[in-house]
Amino acid sequence: MKITAFLSLALLVSSLALVAKDLPFGRKPNVILMITDDQGYGPIGKHGNPWIKTPNLDMLHGQSTRFERFLVSPTCSPTRAALMSGRHPMKNGITHTILERERMALSTVTLPQVLSKAGYVSGIFGKWHLGDEEAYQPHKRGFDEAFIHGAGGIGQAYKCSCADAPGNKYFNPTIRHNGSFVKTEGYCTDLFFTAGMGWIKKVKDEGKPFFAYITTNAPHGPFIAPPKNTKRFTDLGFDAKTAGFYGMIENIDENMGRLMSKLDEWDLSKDTILIFMSDNGSVGGMVREGAKLGTSKDGKPMLGFNAGMKGSKGSPYEGGVRVPFFVRWPGKFGADKAVERICAHIDLLPTLADIAGIEKLPEGQVEGRSLVPLLKNSKAKWKDRHLFTQVARWRTGSEPTDHMWKGFAVRNARYRLVGNSLYDMKKDPNQTTDIAEKHPEVVKSMRAAYEKFWQETRPLMVNEKAPMSPTRPYHVLHAKQLKEGGIPPWNAPKL
Length: 495
Known about the structure:
Blueprint: H1 2-22, E1 30-36, H2 55-63, E2 65-67, E3 70-71, H3 76-85, H4 111-115, E4 121-127, E5 145-149, E6 174-177, E7 180-183, H5 188-203, E8 210-215, H6 227-236, H7 240-265, E9 272-278, H8 284-287, E10 292-295, E11 301-303, H9 318-321, E12 322-323, E13 325-328, E14 337-339, E15 343-344, H10 348-355, H11 372-376, E16 387-390, E17 408-411, E18 415-418, E19 421-424, H12 440-457, H13 473-484
Parallel strand pairs: 1-8, 1-9, 2-14, 3-15, 4-5, 4-8
Antiparallel strand pairs: 2-13, 3-12, 5-6, 6-7, 9-13, 10-11, 16-17, 17-18, 18-19
Helix pairs in contact: 5-7, 6-7
């Protein structure tokens, strides 16, 4: 019996060692993905912004491996679909942010569904924006916990299914919590962080790794921040709109500080990958390079800042799609390391799956690649590839192929092609000089790559002829709950 027990123990140890060997960093970490809405790259202190103070993000900047050429989509739903799927958003049927074209195809296997194979539990807190109809909701797509608003922004409503709970504001919003509405008290960003941290505190002792997706509505317009966060900017001389935008970002920074402090307090930092990013470039005039935003009280002009980049949200230029991507795992990932290789939103799913030891990914779906080699060595060899951008806001009902050569871009390690203009991103990162006439062979090659991509993608645009919903699901469900029992208050977790 003793020999049998010994052999059983030996086999168990051997099995565990084999599992550990398959994990590139020796164990499965928890994962927190924190994504802001419309912040972009420029509004961070460490990125050179002259107005915003972000001490906590600056600290995270120094603690992280930073991907300095991390590219997403020009608008929000497409980026979120790419993160959830590991493939280009249009291959998930997403070509817009409204009009039933923001719904992620039901055939798509999501990131939390993939992570569940490795024993992960998943929670989302904030913005989903991949379909408000019931079948598309996150609690139906692999998330064990869902605390979200509807549509693409708090209070938004359109002539389609995309609509938040009626009458919602940034303060005291009605939130859908695991399929039922609750009434909250407080500012939206504070609430999403509190809900996320409360869930983390709850699941941390259950013995399973977790994936927490904290996804703020801020700093999406309308630009409303707590008065304490806007005052500094109005005192500087900024208008209310700009003060709101910057104030929202400083409030996000405060909440990042809360989160990192709690991870330390709960002894989770060493076991948790913390990722910070944004969903697309910054918005408009507030960040447009050199745009005059006002005059300070000492008479100096206050200018927009976009880290020297051309383009903002909704643009196929670098400024529309380049975002911060900070990745921290103390003791595992290098601190204050910069990765200069071009990487993208489609790479997140295969990266996390790789780290979790998941070998089999959804067949025929994932086209991104694992970032593990770059997390181990920031200068690792990295095969060049084409990454594709499409501002796909064509009129519903029109043939997408008629619009394929409008609002598109192709990017590789050296060049960005936007329409017929070519830019050398190594020599001219601000995209000031069109070199297409000097390199017609590059233009030809990149356009051919885009045409091939389009031929692969067009059959997967499943929402193009979807009829507009006659109802707004959140409005219908909200009215039904009001009638049947009312909207209870949300009991915020004690942290």
